[in-house]
Amino acid sequence: MMAKKIIKASRVERASRVAKVEVEAEETVKKQRAPKDLTTLRGFRDVLPEEEPYWNRVRDNARQLAEYYSFGRLDLPLLEYADLFQRTLGKATDVIEKEMYVFTDPSGYDVALRPEATAQTVRAYINHGMLNRPQPVKLYYEGQMFRHDRPQAGRYRQFNQFGFESIGEADPIVDAQLIVIGERFFRDLGLNVVVEINSIGTSETRKAYVMELVSYFRGFRKNLSEDDKRRLQKNPLRLLDSKEPYMAELLKDAPQIVDWLDEASKNHFMKVLEFLEEIEVPYRLNPHLVRGLDYYNRTVFEMYLAGETSSEASQGALLSGGRYDGLVEMLGGREGTPACGFACGMERVVSALKEAGVDPNPRFQPRVFFAQLGDAARRKGLRLFEEFRAEHIQVAEAFGKGSLKAQLEVANKMNAAYTIILGQKEVLDGTIIIRDMDSGAQEIVDAGKVVSIMQKRLVL
RNA sequence: GCGGCCAUGGUGAAACGGUUAUCACAGGGGUUUGUGGUACCUCUAUUACGGGUUCGAUUCCCGUUGGCCGCCCCA
Question: What is the pLDDT along chain A (460 residues), one digit of tens a residue?
Fold first, then answer.
């Protein structure tokens, strides 16, 4: 009896397992790509050496600013418990609802590739007891983020952000200085941006405002598009930056969030604006600016390329941020810990740099080429190469090539100013040839002195 | 997630449904033994993948995948 039951159960179990495997196999086949079709995943890309100079400029610039304004570098993991983001970003946001790379790791935990780094930064602040450091704790990060949304202009599934976060100080000067840093970042790169700014108050005043907003738009419900109806349901604040053409008219008489701010938030906002005026950072008040993630309160801001407004920017904001005074507490940190920060989309900055024709300053530009003939020369050359390196002179080579002609071709293509040529004869004589690539003039010098001679030549 | 446009070598393009799929550039190798920026020769594509229509498909149709763009959302 017992045995029969077991057999029965196991048969059923086996059957379902087989069915499952079949379903899985079918899915796998469907998703698998032809072996010849060797590409990256959708929305993921390789950055090739030619593009790297732009990235270096962006990264260097951000790092220098971080150093100057005393933001400590914080490197964070790419993978976190999924829960960290689910708790903080807001249940109704797309980032949580459908864009996160969530999976079960081999230990059985629900983990997620980070879609952004602010929640992580706060997690690290709490984890490492940073409340015991002098406040505010100023942190800077950069790295890859992951969101599974549809690739588009300036939008990738893996993208890079750098961010500045200041945790533990409520004074509006923090907000203002962060905006200054952001604006300076672009100015240093030769990009003109416009700062858009707004205040969304506290979560309580926002709630009251949202109710008012909803009741206002309910009156026009039948005029609204499907998208806007959905916003009305799910995320009414989004109605404010809806791109529907009829919206401009409707918004004219709609309640304004600034009118609903509590006294403290209003004061805070005024002070931020005063600081900005003091330091002469041009800004544009945008009463319809709301941020997508739930943790923001009071000051919110975004930066766009000059000449573009938020509604027409082809790839959205280059940088955005704001205050998030409730987040530390929400994650279990000390009650009432204030914070403010921003994140910048580096892909968008790189593309703006290219668009603007900014010179990226390639770093690797060797001006000396070493050409060799024969095994003895190659052996010597390998050594000589190291001697140049010790003197910090960049030398290019093509040790793999045999003929002098081929090597000179390479030297020419890379625009070398000089080629030093070492052949059988020179090895025996202890000499070496220096060829000026512009004039074609050559001179034979003592092999032992070539490094110091080149050193002098390159200074001129 | 929804919609529009698109898909030929490393790159940019060409080929009325009919030969060994053409051209330019880039790249590799060479034009007899040690000299580049000019020449010549030569090599590098099962036309994204899968299916269908057809005597015959790079060309027409469907699906998949991917890219660009708009929406949603966001950096």
Answer: 334 333 333 333 333 433 333 343 433 333 444 444 567 888 998 888 888 889 999 999 999 999 999 999 999 999 999 999 998 887 777 777 788 999 999 999 999 999 999 999 999 999 999 999 999 999 999 999 999 989 988 899 999 999 999 999 999 999 999 999 999 999 999 999 999 999 999 988 988 999 999 999 988 888 888 888 888 888 888 888 888 888 888 888 889 999 999 999 999 999 999 999 999 999 999 998 887 778 899 999 999 988 766 666 667 899 999 999 999 999 999 999 999 999 999 999 999 998 888 877 765 567 899 998 888 888 888 899 999 999 999 898 888 887 888 889 889 888 889 999 999 889 999 999 999 998 889 999 999 999 999 999 887 6
Tell me which H or E stretch contains A166.
strand A158-167
Helix then strand count (H, E) for chain A reads: 16, 16
The candidate with the shortest Cα–Cα distance to A407, out of A387, A422, A394, is: A422
What phi and psi values does residue A193 have, to the nearest 5 degrees? -125, 160
Strand B nucleotides within 7 Å of a protein CB = 1-3, 27-31, 33-37, 46, 48-50, 64-75
Angle at A81 between CA A77 and CA A82, to 5 degrees: 115
- pTM recorded for the entire structure: 0.86
Round to the nearest angstrom and report the end-to-end CA distance of chain A: 98
Top CATH class of A52-201+261-355 equals alpha beta
- The complex scores an ipTM of 0.85
Superfamily of segment(s) A368-459: Anticodon-binding domain (3.40.50.800)
Nucleotide nearest to A150 (CA to C1'): B1
The pair of three-digit structure tokens given for residue A250, joined into one six-digit string: 């409707």
Domain boundary assignment for chain A: 52-201+261-355, 368-459
A412 CA, B38 C1': Å apart: 13
> Closest nucleotide to residue A147 (Cα to C1')?
B74
